[in-house]
Amino acid sequence: MSLTLYGFDGSPYVRTVKMLLKEKGAEFNQLQVNVMKGEPHQPEHLARNAFGKVPVIDHDDFRVIETSAIMSYLDEVLPGISLTPKTARDRARSHMAQAIYDSYGYGSMASVFGYYLFPDFIGGQNDASRLQGIEKSKLVLSELMKIKGNDPFLGGPALSIGDLYLAPACAYLSMTPDAEEIFATKGFADWWTRIQELPSFKATPPQ
Ligand SMILES: N[C@@H](CCC(=O)N[C@@H](CS)C(=O)NCC(=O)O)C(=O)O
Fold first, then answer.
1. Class of the CATH domain delimited by 3-77
2. Residues sharing a CB contact under 8 Å with residue 147, sequence separation 6 or more, in sequence order
3. How far is the CA of 54 from the centre of ligand 1 (A)?
4. Which residues form a coiled coil (predicted)?
């Protein structure tokens, strides 16, 4: 069995996949496709993903693009702990977290952490978009914490794919002066402490 991950360590979506691979204890090769250098849009990577995005994985002769597909595929085929909750309701909670992050979270969070950490990549420091991003990120986190409720993780009692989606963008937000305001949401602090203690989180710092 061979497993190759295409995507560089600065990408939140790539880190989501790497955290799953670490949770599973899987062996894999990684080929750094650097988003900051525009490498996803070079012909070599466009042949892997015509939309010019990372991550991409090759599992033997089978290629998967799109983080949601990669995560559910790898969770199913790799041995180790399952990151898919056991009940239909907890699966829905994890899935809601993933979809909310994809649809409303990543873009708004990136307009905040990108402002400080990667201004050139997001087309320069735009205060209006950063302020809008702060408000939307707060809404996203407060809705996700409602989904979590009193459980330790977004999909219930155990770590699931939904948590692995949210963690990397929160790591970038935590490096900005806006983190305190965005993270003030009820329930977030406990979840964030738990995530930062995960060996899979510690083993995948952005570079
Ligand atoms: N829908 C894609 C989104 C992945 C994505 O946005 N990846 C970013 C890095 S975090 C990327 O490849 N950006 C390159 C670019 O847009 O030029 C997925 O779920 O995998």
1. alpha beta
2. 93, 96, 97, 154, 162
3. 5
4. none
